[in-house]
Amino acid sequence: MSRLLFFIPLAIFLVLAGYFWIGLGKDPHEIPSVLIDRPVPEFALPPIEGRERGLASADLRGEVSLLNVFGSWCVACAVEHPFLMEVKADGLVPIHAIDWREKDRTAGPAWLARRGDPYTLIGDDPDSRAAIALGVTGAPETFIIDRNGVIRYKHVGPITPENWETQLWPIVRALQRG
Predict the structure, then answer these.
(1) Distance between CA atoms of 37 and 29, rounded to whole angstroms?
(2) Domains (range + CATH), the chain
(3) Which is it for strands 95-100 and 122-125: parallel, antiparallel or unpaired?
(4) Which of the two residues, 161 and 6, has the higher pLDDT score?
(5) Is pLDDT at 22 greater than 70 in this prediction?
(6) Above 80 in pLDDT, residue 139?
(7) 3-class SS at 6?
(8) Which residues of 89-118 are buried (b: 16+ CB within 10 A; e: fewer)?
(9) What values do phi and psi take at 14, rounded to 5?
(10) For 71, how many CA atoms within 13 A lie in the half-sphere containing its CB?
């Protein structure tokens, strides 16, 4: 019986060590989404100040596109923004956006005026209605949407040239071809 008592703590340790080992092997930027391979949730957002047209889920049908969630308050959004400007300049894929959780409705438009505007359509989402429907946990987050308005991929964090080339662009290109 005393030998069994010796092995119980060891067994518990090995089980916990296994869970930690598995957890450490996962990519912390990869947050699974239940919306992958499902249509974009229905939403209709008003335009940001200075634009005539907002963004609705219906606008995300008809062509492969990116849907980028950003905010002027978001430091990581400022990091990814120059690369989004390059994607727009190269004409690779339309980029639509949700300006998320702006306390001042002029902050997002002013931020884009200073940095450049890579977006085709932008919806204003100060109350997080569309962001909640999309399962957004922070900014920036970018969704790849196919021609039918179906979410095919969710990227959490800034888009960089590296993750663009290895993750996002291959998916976009395959959807554009197919």
Answers:
(1) 19
(2) 30-177 (3.40.30.10)
(3) parallel
(4) 161
(5) no
(6) yes
(7) helix
(8) eeebbbbbbbbbbbeeeebbbebbeeeebb
(9) -65, -40
(10) 20
